[in-house]
């Protein structure tokens, strides 16, 4: 995901981590540049910040809704991928780290 509103991004990440929506969030600040066509004209936006977040499939919809809520009227590039294979221990780690508080209470 690329964003330009850094203070709003920080609040969004803080809420996602507090509510266990994501297990990891990497921030890549720097010379991220986006270019796309709008109404047949090229638009170039420089100085974007890129986020790489990891979440479980069952929390993805919540994450997307929070992004829409916290970043209204923003031009966001969001790419969602689902691994086909991978380290099962890491996948279990992500699933455990993104459990809701209710799921944690039942697990104890």
Mean pLDDT: 86
First CA to last CA: what distance?
34 Å
Task: Give the number of helices.
Answer: 4
Spans with pLDDT under 50 lasting ≥5 residues?
A: none
Q: Over the alpha carbons, how many angstroms does the gyration radius reach?
A: 16 Å
Shape, please?
A: elongated
Kindly state the number of beta strands.
Answer: 3
Secondary-structure element order, N to C = EHEEHHH
Structural class: alpha+beta
Residue share in helix: 25-40%
Q: What profile does the largest beta sheet have? A: 3 strands, antiparallel
Overall description:
- The protein has 108 residues and is α+β, with helices and mostly antiparallel strands.
- 38% of the residues lie in helices and 29% in strands.
- It has 4 helices and 3 strands; from the N terminus they run βαββααα.
- It has helices at residues 6-18, 60-70, 88-97, 101-107, and strands spanning 2-3, 24-38, 41-54.
- The chain has a 3-stranded antiparallel sheet, covered by helices on one side.
- α1 packs antiparallel against α2 (60-70).
- It is elongated and about 55 Å long.
- It starts with a strand and ends with a helix.
Tell me briefly what this model is.
The protein starts with a strand and ends with a helix.
What topology does this entry show?
Elements: E1 2-3, H1 6-18, E2 24-38, E3 41-54, H2 60-70, H3 88-97, H4 101-107
Antiparallel strand pairs: 1-3, 2-3
Helix pairs in contact: 1-2
